[in-house]
Specification:
Helix content is 42%, strand content 17%. The chain has 11 helices and 9 strands.
């Protein structure tokens, strides 16, 4: 009997020690002080976000890694809770919806006051998992110097860009890898119908220097005088203009400016890390408004009234209704490039 009691006591002690160790490990995991962010945002916004986070959280190790929107979604979906990524920042809503469907994001339902955001910035298909980051409209961006050097006038329609004189002088992001590229494709599908839009890009492709993987690629190519025309983001083009790239000009055609919403979300299982929650809270409480004020004035917050030099006013947006995950996947299956 004494022998049995000794064994039971020993087992009880082991259980207590294991429990204590498990609790200790859980606490350690919940407070790692390290946060990894995947983002497709522009380099200047990445740099400023890193500066702000380092100042706000000097005791945390915060790493921001750049990837295209599609690569972020693919990597997080593949790795799930084992991903190095804790927060996806400025991810296109279509890819966020895909991650929600795959079950790889933490719910943030009830954690934040969504009433401070515009209603269309927090649609029901994402609002339990993501907070708005920015709204970006697109325009046909031209480099007036490169146009002049090639004897070209400013295009006034999408059809103008089919002129063989533009061969190798047009840049666009691939809809398969970039939310920016996809918004141009989808806007023309809505304006013209699917068959006509796809036929247009078939005709345009010989004039495309390259379909870039990133939505930033076309404007960067314009700044470097590699192309004359880019299907790009208004906000990025204006930032470059205000930094001194005065050869750039933003044009709009009669179909209107395509637009996208980008948001922020926490990867499954990562909300338990207090550092991750702190960073997400900071994005909601401060940085979304700050980045919108500086770079992305097309509002996602109620009452926002930003003024950025050279930013176009009275933008007429394209019809982007019905732009959901099912529509996106069906359309991209037909994109051949």
């Amino acid at each position: 009997m004494k022998h049995i009691k000794k064994i039971l006591c020993a087992l009880l002690l082991v259980a207590i020690l294991c429990s204590a160790f498990a609790c200790g490990s859980g606490e350690e995991n919940a407070n790692t002080g390290k946060v990894t962010i995947y983002t497709s945002t522009e380099d200047y916004n990445m740099a400023y976000l890193q500066e702000c986070l380092d100042a706000q959280f000097p005791d945390y190790e915060i790493v921001i890694e750049y990837m295209s929107t599609s690569n972020i979604a693919a990597k997080v979906i593949e790795e799930g809770a084992d991903s190095d990524c804790d927060i996806v920042y400025m991810e296109e809503y279509g890819y966020i919806e895909k991650m929600i469907e795959a079950g790889v994001l933490d719910s943030i339902k009830g954690d934040y006051d969504l009433s401070k955001y515009l209603d269309d910035a927090v649609p029901a298909n994402v609002n339990e998992y993501a907070l708005p980051g920015c709204r970006t409209g697109g325009g046909i961006i031209v480099n007036t110097y490169v146009l002049e050097q090639n004897g070209l006038s400013k295009p006034t329609s999408y059809q103008d860009l089919l002129d063989p004189a533009y061969k190798g002088l047009v840049s666009m992001a691939s809809p398969k890898s970039s939310g920016t590229g996809y918004m141009f494709l989808y806007s023309l599908v809505k304006a013209w119908g699917e068959d006509e839009a796809l036929a247009y890009f078939d005709a345009l492709t010989p004039n495309i220097l390259a379909y870039t993987t990133s939505g930033s690629g076309p404007v960067n190519a314009l700044v470097n005088r590699e192309v004359a025309v880019g299907f790009g983001m208004i906000s990025q083009a204006v930032t470059k203009i205000n930094e001194g790239s005065t050869e750039l000009e933003v044009l709009f055609f009669e179909e209107g400016a395509p637009c996208n919403l980008y948001g922020n979300a926490i990867v499954k299982g990562k909300k338990a890390n207090q550092a991750v929650k702190d960073v997400m809270d900071y994005l909601d409480a401060f940085y979304t408004n700050e980045s919108n004020r500086l770079y992305y004035p097309e509002p996602v917050l109620n009452g926002a009234d930003y003024e950025i030099p050279n930013f176009p006013t009275d933008i007429v947006y394209a019809d982007m209704s019905g732009n959901n995950l099912d529509a996106k996947e069906a359309l991209l299956e037909k994109w051949p490039y």
